[in-house]
Design a protein that fits this description.
This protein is α/β, with parallel strands linked by helices. Strands 1, 2, 3, 4, 5, 6 and 17 form a seven-stranded mixed β-sheet that branches.
Length: 468
Amino acid sequence: MKEFDVVIIGSGPGGYVSAIRCAQLGLKTALIEKYSTLGGTCLNVGCIPSKAMLDSSEHYHNASHTFKEHGIELSNLKVDLKQMISRKDGVVSQTVAGIDYLMKKNKIDVIHGFGSFVDAKTISIKSDDGKEEKISAKNIVIATGSKPSSVPGVNIDKKRIITSTEALQLKEVPKHMIIIGGGVIGMEMGSVYGRLGSEITVVEFTDAICGAFDKTLSKELQKVLMKLGFKFNLQHKVTSAKVSGKTVTVTAESLKDGKSIEIKGDYVLVATGRRPYTDGLNLEKAGITADERGRIPVNEHCETSVEGIYAIGDVVRGAMLAHKAEEEGTYVAERIAGQKPHINHLLIPNVVYTWPEVASVGYTEEQLKVDKRAYKTGSFPFKASGRARASMDTDGLVKVLADKETDEILGVHIIGPRAADMIAEAVVAMEFRASAEDIARISHAHPTFTESFREAALAATDNRAIHI
């Protein structure tokens, strides 16, 4: 039986990053992956392919809606969905090949097959051809990620009632896509097809889309998506989805008055979130019990109740984000190697890759109110930004929350162009416990989108914004 210092189950961002860091630290490392390609959901059917589709659809939308304003005339514009998906597949292939290279470069043993616990130190790996191999490890990291979840009364057939995985491989642009769930996945995939000409109807159980974000961002995003043609049925509970030929009928009940509505479309995207994927791991043989939501309980060091067994990413508490999994994977590797790493889950940014993008870090205003913490706020709209006007990206704003007494930045919330990149400055500032005045006094190049962050910080500092 082969013996390793560390065995990692799952090769998504958390798993493969953890494996690389373990190898860098001189630990003999094995990575187990049940699929034929590495990278997990993120690289194969999640983050990377969805961003490729989002970029392609944004190019088409701009060509059909804003190019003329820029003085660019086009004729006979059309969508070649097959080519769009082919390009996306190429991006995925290149990215996955990059992970293969990194495994070889770092001398990590990659074992393809389904891994499960024999006991707390032994893993069984069954390959597709039925062969079984057992390996042992001093430390084991569970990084098996998550799978799409559904709702009662909705049977995902992967043809007309689909998840985001199937939405990345459609053969046609839907005439009317009904999206169950107003979270990140639904808004991103809805944006792809909404830009390509689909009618989009969203059915959401709560009173806001992307509810984990500051309410200001949720409301702004809804306004922007409505301009794209989205229709929203908030505070509605889906009770059934039935397929008849090429038509799907979704029935939903209003939580306000109990009235039932019917919506007909040709595709239904189920985007009600994801559940931790621990199926078949045989956690009980290792002495681990999942909680009521299927998550693996861990302490502040990402270690389970069994010494030497760790869990990271989507299978543990916290937001299901690829970069959160990466941070935890690095943390665990360094912890195993005897170092004293640091991770601050509050300062892991959250992003929605619609256009405009939505990005957030730190406390929301709603959280500060619940905590009864004295705060001040400053905001700046992109319509007042010269750079945003030049690129015709004037939707959205930057919002800064700061402690009322100390001026320390407590939260930054952005909806606007390149928000996903802009949020990094806020994360750096907050890691160093910067004040709003610190940002206000730092020179930002002109004209840039990031000037809006400075203006929002100025607004939070005695209402000193210059350009509004």
